[in-house]
Specification:
This protein is mainly beta. The model has no long low-confidence stretch (mean pLDDT 86).
């Protein structure tokens, strides 16, 4: 048998005294680890692999931060940094810098500029578990429309992992709030442990995707009535009315358009 120049691994496996399985594999000259740098959440694991080679042994420069077994499985223990050194079967050494992070979800807060005009939006920017396993969630509610939002109906929070598997599902019929027109508000809710699909110790919030939705964001009552009263008082005929939780639309004659705008402007004391 002719083999090209290079380093090889010779492995023999046996089940009984008379059955043997001999394997010869060449060690790649371009062997590399699947991670050279790795962010890992405290309490979670990650597997190191040598692409084009075989791991012989592993060690951690700081076992208080993270430990590693000889097959390359890293276990995150405490916040901090450590260097994992991997020794291959050909005695070549490689390393991976591991940073252990807290099990918290963090994201940028949205602002009015991030929300389409005449709409509203909610987005989570922080989440963490308490000692009992309840999920504390902070989110921003942005109201980029006219009318104060006092309630979000069919409020729902879902948390999914990186593979889109559901981890947390929480809902309530109404979420009471108070957000003025064209403004935002920081909101906080506590999701009970019972809404979790698995133990909180097995949910990686740092890499999770959190979404918050609602069927409608109800404006303060009386806005529509005030608008209709103002138009009626000015003898402006309303031909058609369309409403939603965040918008009121009326159809009027072209000749009344300018006057209607002034009437509504004065009724709500809108800025020029």
């Amino acid at each position: 048998m002719h083999l090209p120049a290079g380093d090889y691994i010779l492995e023999m496996n046996f089940e009984t005294e008379v059955n043997y399985d001999l394997t010869v594999s060449r060690i790649s000259e371009n062997t590399k680890l699947n991670y050279s740098k790795l962010d890992l959440t405290k309490g979670f694991n990650k597997q190191l692999k040598a692409e084009g080679g075989t791991i012989k042994s592993c060690s951690s420069s700081n076992k208080k931060v993270a430990t590693v077994n000889n097959s390359g499985k890293i276990s995150a223990k405490n916040i901090g940094k450590t260097i994992i050194t991997v020794k291959l079967s050909n005695n070549k050494k490689m390393s991976c810098v591991v940073s252990v992070k807290p099990n918290k979800h963090q994201a940028k807060k949205i602002t009015i500029k991030d929300v389409v005009y005449n709409t509203s939006k909610m987005k989570a920017y922080a989440a963490s578990f308490d000692a009992k396993g309840n999920l504390h969630l902070k989110f921003k509610l942005v109201n980029n429309s006219y009318g104060k939002i006092t309630n979000v109906s069919k409020f729902k929070v879902s948390v999914k992992d990186s593979s889109n598997k559901s981890l947390v599902s929480y809902s309530k019929n109404n979420f009471k709030t108070n957000v003025a027109s064209y403004s935002d508000k920081d909101c906080t809710i506590i999701i009970p442990k019972s809404a979790l699909k698995k133990s909180y110790k097995k949910i990686d919030l740092r890499t999770a995707k959190i979404s918050i939705i609602g069927a409608g964001m109800t404006s303060n009552p009386g806005v529509a009535a005030k608008m209709f009263e103002a138009l009626s008082g000015a003898n402006i005929n309303i031909k058609m009315i369309a409403t939603s939780e965040i918008r009121i639309t009326v159809l009027i004659d072209e000749e009344d358009a300018s006057r209607a705008m002034r009437v509504v402007h004065d009724a709500f004391s809108l800025a020029d």
